[in-house]
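ok trying again, last paste got cut off:
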Amino acid sequence: MKAQGVRVFYSLLSMAGMFTNTSPIHAADTAAAVSVPVTMTVTATVANNKRMPDINQNDIVVRQGKARLDVTNWVPARGDRAGLDLFILIDDSIDFRVGGQFDDLRAFIDAQPPTTSIGVGYMRNATVQVVQDFTANHVLAAGALRLPLGSPGALGSPYLSVVDLMKRWPQGDNRREVLMITDGIDRARHHLGWHRGLSIYPDADMAGTVAQRTGTIIHTIYAPGADPFRRNYARSTNGQMNLARLSDKTGGSSFFLGLHGPVSFRPYLDSLQQILDNQYLLSFSATAGKRAGLQYITLGTEVAGVELATHNSVWVPAAK
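nice, full thing came through this time. structure:
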């Protein structure tokens, strides 16, 4: 009986030691959690062109996993916060007849507010030929438009081209957005067999990752190519699908009308203007890790009828 009591005593003592030893570890883990400020651009939309209701900071819900994060700022991208860098990126492989839509594109550029800087470039050989650097002179930017050459070059990939553009983007605090006009076909990888069916382009995924890391929103307009690929249903559908995925992943919008060229760019550009006019700058405290990296977040609002669009993931600096 006495021996059994001794065993029970030592068992209890051992358990107490376990709790004593593990408590500091949990405390250290809690102390190691460091919050860092993160800012991203968010687009608010309502159905059927209804009036946009007031959206306050307390209405925004940001989650990182199951944890709800602290929203520190929510302001409309207007007034002294309206700065926007918008790059018009045109694929040199698309049919030159898209030039018939350029009057709509010029009107869209001319209508931008003075707080918007416009850049213009052409995708070719997996790079970008910049024909107009960012400028607030919208007449100058509109005048830089030219007809596409109808050739992708030796290595034609709109996704590698937009990556090239984002890597060369000048530093600044303005919103970063791109309008890509392309058929979305990755001609640099046409030999890998993706013509057999629908597939995800690795370069499109890479472009989405770079866009999330740099805070760039990518909008896309589908326009048919000039080469024989345009007559291949699977290739054209692949291109369109990957464009839509890229826009969705980066918080942008994708515009297309089947696999045909648009009758007019104007409805697309009107929709894009509504997007730009209803954007907000969101800041919140994210939980940092030992290394900087992309972290998946979910975003929602408690205001009925409002949908919010932004990047699927946000770049979070390392804990200091």
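cool. Confidence is low (pLDDT under 50) at residues 1-31. The chain has two domains: 36-78+279-316, 81-277.
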